[in-house]
Amino acid sequence: MKDFLGEYQHSLDAKGRLIMPSDFRGPLAHGAVIGIGTHNCLVVYTPEEWVSAAEGIRELSRQGGDQLDAARAFFAGAREVTPDSQGRVPIALDQRTYAGLERDVIVSGAFSRIEIWDATRWNERREEGQATLSAATSLPGFGI
């Protein structure tokens, strides 16, 4: 599967639904899982990517302690969704609250996953990432 790329500005509708960018719809046509992510964003997984992520979290949870608590939050915060004919996916109220989503959101490709951010929070995180990237004299892992 190819990576999801790009950044798209969208809005939640009055029912808390989000129209997924057309570039992202194909891999999500038969369903997806939306879960909570780091830095108060939401993460959209294809069914295949969800299986992989869930197995990794399951392994970590066996260590107990903080890892088990994080695993509980990870699974409790996840919802299976299926886009409707217009490419809209419902975002649960608890997920919208976690991510601070009210209206304007950014849908961003993130490797084999998709992230959903509050637009203001995304702009702050993106600026930090761009500053790190531009300040680096080299990033061997990036091929730069």
Q: What would you note in describing this structure?
A:
The strands form two sheets. A six-stranded antiparallel β-sheet has the order 1-7-8-4-3-5. Strands 2-6 form a two-stranded antiparallel sheet. The longest helix has 17 residues, at 119-135. The protein has one domain (7-135): 3-Layer(aba) Sandwich (Chemotaxis protein chec), CATH 3.40.1550. Helices cover 40% and strands 25% of the residues. The protein is α+β, with helices and mostly antiparallel strands. InterPro entries: MraZ, MraZ_C, MraZ_dom, MraZ_N, MraZ_sf, SpoVT-AbrB_dom, SpoVT-AbrB_sf.
CATH class: Alpha Beta
- The CATH superfamily turns out to be Transcriptional regulator MraZ domain
Number of helices: 5
- Distance, first to last CA: 24 Å
Q: What is the averaged pLDDT score?
A: 92
Radius of gyration: 16 Å
- Quaternary class: single chain
From the 3D structure, determine the CATH topology. Chemotaxis protein chec
- For the biggest β-sheet, the strand order reads 1-7-8-4-3-5
Into which percentage range does the β-strand content fall? 25-35%
| Weakly predicted, low-confidence segments | none
Largest sheet: 6 strands, antiparallel
The CATH architecture can be given as 3-Layer(aba) Sandwich
**Overall structural domain count:** 1
Find the structural class using helix and strand composition: alpha+beta
Q: What is the helix content? A: 40-55%
Number of strands: 8
